[in-house]
Structures are given as C-alpha cells and as structure tokens.
C-alpha cells in the first residue's frame, strides 16, 4: 500500500463539477492499493497515517499528529501510485490491485482511520476527480507499507 500524505490547510474533491468532499486543516492522503496488499498493510498504514507527527508544536517543530491537532483527513484512491515507469514511456499498472479488491481495502482503510477518532472524507472510487489543495508548509511524505517489512 502506498500513500502520498500532504499536510493541508484545506482540500476538496470535485466530480462532474460538484464538490463531493472537503476538509480544512489536516491531511490529504492519496492512496494506492497494490495487488499483494492485505489487512496487515492496511493496519500498518492506518496506524502510520493517524500517528504521523507532521504538525508543528508551540516551538515550531513537527511533533504533533493529526489526532493531536484534531485535524481532518481527505482520502482519495489513486491506483496510479503503482505506475511502473522503468521500461518505456507508458506506465505499467500490473502491480496495482484489481478495482474490486482495491475498493474493498480502501474502504476498510477509511474505516480503520475513522475508528481512531479522525473525521475522514473521501473521493469517489473509480471516478475522474478534480482534487484541490493548499499544501501547508509544503509538507509531503511518501509512505509504503512494503517498507514496514524490512
């Protein structure tokens, strides 16, 4: 499972020119599900995202988590995070999970984060989305559950 985490002052998702989700201070998480991902990856990612200390404390140090600052999260499924560009010019997506498998794990990830007490909004799975954000910092972190297995 791969996530691109961005600390935002606000973020939103539009589908067909209609805003379907929006948050204020918090995290935008672009989520890619791999075909080998399972519940272990899901729980690792839920724990990592919700506890990631990327918000500043009173000394200006990144020392606070989303829970600490009572922030919100916008999660958007993005299979292109599994694009493999090592050969040729066109990305291969063979490592991305099949849509039905990815949707199930994505929804379970959303629920796991919500169970931690975080307000979570989502994009619309398998839709053309326009994602807008104001990246605060900017702070952008890349997480990969495969790195947890080393």
Helix and strand topology:
Layout: E1 2-15, E2 18-23, E3 26-32, H1 39-51, E4 55-56, E5 62-64, H2 66-69, E6 72-77, H3 99-114, E7 119-122, E8 130-144
Parallel strand pairs: 3-6, 6-7
Antiparallel strand pairs: 1-2, 1-3, 1-8, 4-5
Q: Could you characterize what this model shows?
A:
There is one protein chain. The chain has 150 residues and is an alpha/beta fold. It has one domain (2-149): D-tyrosyl-trna(Tyr) Deacylase, Chain: A, CATH 3.50.80. It has helices spanning 39-51, 66-69, 99-114; strands spanning 2-15, 18-23, 26-32, 55-56, 62-64, 72-77, 119-122, 130-144. The strands form 2 sheets. Strands 1, 2, 3, 6, 7 and 8 form a 6-stranded mixed sheet that branches. Strands 4-5 form a two-stranded antiparallel sheet. A hairpin with a 2-residue loop joins strand 1 (2-15) and strand 2 (18-23). The chain is globular and about 45 Å long.
């Amino acid at each position: 499972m791969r996530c691109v985490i961005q600390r935002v002052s606000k973020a939103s998702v539009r589908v067909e020119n209609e805003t379907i989700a929006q948050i204020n201070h918090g995290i935008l998480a672009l989520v890619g599900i791999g075909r080998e991902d399972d519940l272990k990856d899901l729980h690792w990612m839920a724990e990592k995202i919700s506890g990631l200390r990327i918000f500043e404390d009173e000394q200006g140090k990144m020392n606070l988590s989303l829970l600490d600052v009572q922030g919100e999260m916008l999660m958007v499924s993005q299979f292109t995070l599994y694009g493999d560009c090592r050969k040729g010019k066109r990305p291969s997506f063979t490592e991305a999970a099949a849509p039905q498998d990815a949707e199930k794990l994505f929804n379970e990830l959303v629920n796991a984060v919500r169970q931690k007490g975080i307000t979570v909004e989502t994009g619309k799975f398998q839709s053309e989305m326009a994602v807008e954000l104001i990246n605060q910092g900017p702070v952008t972190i890349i997480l990969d559950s495969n790195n947890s297995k080393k």
